[in-house]
């Protein structure tokens, strides 16, 4: 029997497995497809909430802790696997922000470098940004990571670790219940047992837990994105306008996203979204009109009340834990969200107060966060 079993092989599940294995524990990770190929692959990789001043303190606490961990994590994974997650700290430009005063006040309160810059500085940083803006907000410390490669690197590292067993193409049919305890999962390939089971299955977490009578307010929220094949240097940093963004990669490619669609578990792409995303991207960088769109895809975010993830023990069952509901900020919050749970699992002092994230602490419904 393993010490820990993790359901879900996204970035949250894989980082949890990595940290538990680093601490000397045996870990089984069960993924119905291939690790890192769902929401973790589909996102953009910005290592910050889009408009961080519009989020609650619970999200800010996790995102602040996480942001500084990505350079170290990316370097470690490159050294250990040869796969570069391509962490880039080039900053972010905010165009046409309505609540500038609130943003600047937030930055002062949390000691975050965020400044209003004029048009000359804006176009010095991004000459190919759309003309006509009289300035922007500038956050120099913001980074981005190439999330598909982050997933590949995490998976490769786990495959190297002798205390980790990956069970891919292995769908969980049920949690194994023994009285008031959960002792692993049943799968078509057989039972996998563990002392502790951690559900990190993103938008699919709710259905699994509902089978044992646990209500988790997580729902799928579709997001569509497109990828331009652009020449290197067309744009160097993340630029955000009216809730849409462009993200450059090291090879010149530019991601544009994203939509927010309440359509259940539908992952189909649509022509309407394609046209809207392309128009938004061109309104930020007009020269993208000359660049072909290489790819158009959709993913399912795990939406939750106020976007606050549920992290911790499920009180009704011994040995059952959850880390789900990160909404638009799975990659943003992953280092802190996984560390917070692992600290509790192995008896360390939590990095932040765990109470706001405990399953059952979120209201049943609430306004969704802006941005």
UniProtKB/TrEMBL annotation:
The keyword Transmembrane helix does not apply. Keywords: Oxidoreductase, Thiamine biosynthesis. Pathway: Cofactor biosynthesis; thiamine diphosphate biosynthesis. Gene3D superfamilies: D-Amino Acid Oxidase, subunit A, domain 2, FAD/NAD(P)-binding domain. Residues 3-343 form the FAD dependent oxidoreductase domain. It comes from Salinicola socius. This is Glycine oxidase ThiO. PANTHER family: GLYCINE OXIDASE (PTHR13847:SF289), SARCOSINE DEHYDROGENASE-RELATED (PTHR13847). One of its GO terms (biological process) is thiamine diphosphate biosynthetic process. GO terms for molecular function: flavin adenine dinucleotide binding; oxidoreductase activity. GO terms for cellular component: cytoplasm. InterPro entries: FAD-dep_OxRdtase, FAD/NAD-bd_sf, Gly_oxidase_ThiO.
């Amino acid at each position: 029997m393993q010490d820990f079993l993790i359901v879900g092989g996204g970035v949250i599940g894989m980082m949890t497995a990595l940290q538990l294995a680093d601490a000397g524990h045996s870990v089984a990770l069960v993924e119905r497809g291939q690790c890192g190929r769902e929401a973790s692959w589909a996102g953009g990789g910005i290592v910050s909430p889009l408009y961080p001043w519009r989020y609650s303190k619970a999200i800010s606490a996790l995102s602040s802790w996480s942001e500084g961990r990505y350079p170290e994590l990316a370097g470690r994974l490159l050294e250990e696997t040869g796969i570069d997650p391509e962490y880039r700290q080039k900053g972010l430009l905010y165009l046409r922000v309505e609540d500038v005063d609130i943003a600047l006040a937030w930055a002062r309160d949390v000691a975050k470098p965020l400044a209003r810059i004029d048009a000359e500085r804006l176009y010095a940083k991004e000459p190919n940004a759309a003309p006509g803006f009289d300035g922007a907000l500038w956050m120099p410390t913001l980074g981005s990571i190439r999330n598909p490669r982050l997933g590949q690197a995490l998976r490769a590292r786990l495959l190297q670790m002798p205390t980790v067993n990956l069970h891919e193409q292995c769908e969980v049919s049920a949690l194994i219940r023994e009285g008031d305890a959960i002792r692993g999962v049943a799968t078509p390939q057989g039972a996998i047992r563990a002392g502790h089971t951690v559900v990190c299955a993103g938008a699919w977490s709710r259905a699994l837990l509902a089978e044992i009578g646990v209500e988790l307010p997580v729902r799928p929220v579709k997001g569509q994105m497109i990828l331009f094949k652009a020449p290197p240097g067309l744009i160097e940093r993340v630029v955000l306008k009216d809730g849409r963004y462009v993200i450059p990669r090291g090879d010149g490619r530019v991601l544009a996203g994203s939509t927010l669609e309440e359509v259940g578990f539908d992952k189909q792409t649509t022509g309407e979204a394609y046209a809207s995303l392309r128009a938004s991207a061109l309104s930020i960088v007009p020269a993208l009109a000359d660049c072909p769109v290489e790819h158009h895809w959709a993913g399912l975010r795990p939406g939750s009340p106020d976007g606050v993830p549920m992290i911790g023990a499920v009180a009704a069952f011994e040995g059952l834990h959850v880390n789900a509901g990160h909404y638009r900020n799975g990659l943003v919050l992953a280092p802190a969200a996984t560390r917070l749970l692992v600290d509790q699992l192995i008896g360390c002092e939590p990095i932040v107060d765990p109470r706001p994230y405990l399953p059952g602490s979120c209201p049943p419904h609430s306004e969704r966060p802006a941005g």
